[in-house]
Specification:
PF0523-like, alpha+beta, 5-stranded antiparallel sheet
């Protein structure tokens, strides 16, 4: 499982689930693990795993400093991934639907709670510990951004900078 440190207290768990789902599964996980911030993500909406990790770190920072673009961390995360300031558009691009053959679970919180949700996932879902996502061409087309012109060594950060600019402009209007 992919666990990434966000701060001294908090980390994030990212897991790929190899089956379709419905939104009731997300609601169930949120109810069973209320101390965690949990979101299901369409894997086709991210460039790669590093892109998702950076987006989670940005949303985490925004939450800690009262800078979320939405009321909830989970929605802010989808907006950053989707490079949009529109919640509905973010849900369409980065949210899950019954058409998804797989999805990602991202949970943020303390290691103790992350271990509990990880154990539940191992016991109940068809998961993968190897997350190998490369949506370079799809993201290029989806957002109409020429990724070849971005700094290839920091492409994930450059992509999220587009998102940050869009979200900041929302507050300045």
């Amino acid at each position: 499982m992919n666990i990434h440190k966000l701060s001294k207290q908090d980390s994030c768990l990212i897991v790929q689930i190899n089956s379709s789902t419905n939104k009731s599964s997300l609601i169930e996980l949120r109810e069973n693990y209320p101390k965690l911030l949990t979101q299901f993500i369409n894997p086709g909406s991210i460039l790669n795993l590093q892109h998702l990790i950076f987006a989670i770190k940005q949303s985490y920072y925004a939450k800690k400093h009262n800078l979320l673009a939405a009321r909830e961390f989970e929605v802010d995360l989808l907006m950053r991934i989707s490079i949009t300031d529109q919640i509905e558009e973010a849900l369409t691009i980065a949210g899950i639907s019954p058409k998804n053959k797989s999805y990602l679970i991202a949970s943020v919180g303390k290691i103790k709670e992350l271990t509990q949700i990880q154990n539940w996932i191992v016991e109940n879902l068809d998961y993968s510990t190897d997350i190998n996502i490369n949506n370079y061409k799809k993201i290029n087309k989806l957002h109409n951004i020429d990724l070849d012109k971005l700094n290839q060594s920091n492409i994930e950060l450059d992509l999220l900078s587009y998102s940050a600019v869009k979200l900041v402009s929302r507050f300045s209007d």
